[in-house]
Amino acid sequence: MYLHPLMAGLPPAEREALAECSRPRSYKRNEVLLAAGDTTDQIYCVASGLLRVVTPGHAEGSEMTTELIGPNDFFFDLSIREDRYRTKQTLIATLPSSVFLVPIAKMRGLCVRRPEVALGLLGLTMKRMNVLRDQFRRISVLPAEDLVLRVLHELTRLAPIGPGGYDKRITQSVIASYSGLSREMVNKIMRAMEIRGLVRRDEDGVHVAEDFVATDFA
């Protein structure tokens, strides 16, 4: 049974109770877990795979990926003030994913009994907010190539395939949606990076040059 690191220090009885109310689900690539406007009473905990959070754009049919959620991370309303809420975002499996659904009510009760869990969730929430803020800042100030390079670097961490590589099933459309660029622009940039030796592809994944992966992107 998968156990999130945040819960690893709980007493056995608490862990068992949490396991009993959690529901494991498997999602195919590009499958929608939760659509904008849906009501949910669950927290989505990623055991494996990769999810993305999509916000509808102003133009009809447009969208923007605001977050990538990898293993040991959660998707939930940032406040968890109620036992259920209506989401304004869509949650999609970017890769085949194993996800555990935990009732919000159970998690809220656990937070009351175990302040360390509440503090851990608060830390994850603050991290998500910082990542989201930094992503929007980068989109507003960085050149297109730098944006793409930073997204590729993040993918080597979230969906690694060997040293400095990421899963090739992550499409350029997803990269474009997350970087705020068009797919055509991302394709042009990545082709240029391949010519320059910054990126190479093989049967397993897309690999980014080691000197680039080692760069500090804080």
Automatic annotation (TrEMBL):
<dbReference type="InterPro" id="IPR036388">
    <property type="entry name" value="WH-like_DNA-bd_sf"/>
</dbReference>
<keyword id="KW-0805">Transcription regulation</keyword>
<keyword id="KW-0804">Transcription</keyword>
<dbReference type="InterPro" id="IPR036390">
    <property type="entry name" value="WH_DNA-bd_sf"/>
</dbReference>
<dbReference type="Pfam" id="PF00027">
    <property type="entry name" value="cNMP_binding"/>
</dbReference>
<protein>
    <submittedName>
        <fullName>Crp/Fnr family transcriptional regulator</fullName>
    </submittedName>
</protein>
<dbReference type="GO" id="GO:0005829">
    <property type="term" value="C:cytosol"/>
</dbReference>
<dbReference type="InterPro" id="IPR014710">
    <property type="entry name" value="RmlC-like_jellyroll"/>
</dbReference>
<dbReference type="InterPro" id="IPR018490">
    <property type="entry name" value="cNMP-bd_dom_sf"/>
</dbReference>
<dbReference type="Pfam" id="PF13545">
    <property type="entry name" value="HTH_Crp_2"/>
</dbReference>
<dbReference type="GO" id="GO:0003677">
    <property type="term" value="F:DNA binding"/>
</dbReference>
<dbReference type="InterPro" id="IPR050397">
    <property type="entry name" value="Env_Response_Regulators"/>
</dbReference>
<keyword id="KW-0238">DNA-binding</keyword>
<dbReference type="InterPro" id="IPR000595">
    <property type="entry name" value="cNMP-bd_dom"/>
</dbReference>
<dbReference type="InterPro" id="IPR012318">
    <property type="entry name" value="HTH_CRP"/>
</dbReference>
<feature type="domain" description="HTH crp-type">
    <location>
        <begin position="145"/>
        <end position="212"/>
    </location>
</feature>
<feature type="domain" description="Cyclic nucleotide-binding">
    <location>
        <begin position="6"/>
        <end position="87"/>
    </location>
</feature>
<dbReference type="GO" id="GO:0003700">
    <property type="term" value="F:DNA-binding transcription factor activity"/>
</dbReference>
